[in-house]
């Protein structure tokens, strides 16, 4: 600003003294050149004579105008500088505020980044722990599977060795040895049928089939086996016939007939006639006695008294009849249960009690009552407790023969 003022002052001092020959002031760089229209005027003014006052006032006017121009220029420059300074300050404030916002945003972003990094690190550590656990579990499962496969391979090796040994044994056996093995199986099956199912009829059939298999071998050394089989068959045939199912069905039929039984009805005894009554005589002389007898016979006809030779039993009420029938059914059901349990004494007691009740309370002349009593009499002599043999002789005989021939069987098949 000072340099500009010094330059203006210098220009003013240099132009304070006007030239004598010049009619117009010397123009500086800031003033524009005159146009072609003004040149004739200037020429005309040059031709006119100037008086002394005009020449004296002209330098002052030029100085004042230049001074005002310089002053206006200085004011404009000062305003421009102030405006520029204000703009610079505002720009600085805006820049500082923006910088602070950017710094806060950077700090916030950095904290978010740190939180994300921490969360990611936790997730990564969690996943690593899970992966380690899964890997350890999978490794343990693989080890268990490997051990199981190894054990299975070892078992297969043992089975293969056993099969090879049996194959070597079979290669040196007789062709009919399989019949002996079949007979051993049939004897074992007969024992199961006898002791588990109480079916000695099927057991007899199985023993007879085993005897046929031994007979097909046609070997004199097996005669002891056939003897033991014959003894077992005879023992089983001597047992009483298994009739538990037949007896149970027979009792079911009796239970269905209980409701059709007829109770004993009241039977009045014959009236006793009075033999002491006298008849009227035909003699006229006995008219008094005859009159007395007639009067007595007439008077006795109003009230008749008959005497019975036995007591009269009262009738049974319907409720008592229902209880009697239900008790009788319960006794027969108890007999059925005794058959299943093979308890001879409870079975005999139930049959005897049922027979006694039917004879006491029901009509003996009725056909249904006669049928029920006949069935109970047949059941009374039934045997439900069968004593089965504890073992079969043929089982030990066949097992001993198979051990002698090294057929690979032992007494484990016995029951």
Plain-language structure description:
This protein has 3 domains: 1-16 and 57-172; 177-237 and 389-413, no CATH class; 243-264 and 317-385. The chain is 70% helix and 1% strand. Residues 1-56 and 409-415 have low confidence and may be disordered. It is elongated and about 225 Å long. It has helices spanning 2-14, 39-47, 52-171, 177-195, 200-217, 223-237, 244-256, 287-300, 318-341, 344-361, 367-380, 393-404; strands at 271-272, 307-308.
Strand content: under 5%
Alpha-beta classification: mainly alpha
Please give the count of helices: 12
Widest sheet: strand ordering: 1-2
What is the domain total for the residues?
A: 3
Helical fraction = 55-70%
Alpha-carbon distance between the two ends: 135 Å
pLDDT under 50 segments (min length 5)? Answer: 1-56, 409-415
Beta strands, count: 2
Average pLDDT works out at: 75
Q: Could you spell the SSE succession in H and E letters?
A: HHHHHHHEHEHHHH
Shape from CA axes?
Answer: elongated
Largest sheet: 2 strands, antiparallel
How big is the Rg?
A: 75 Å
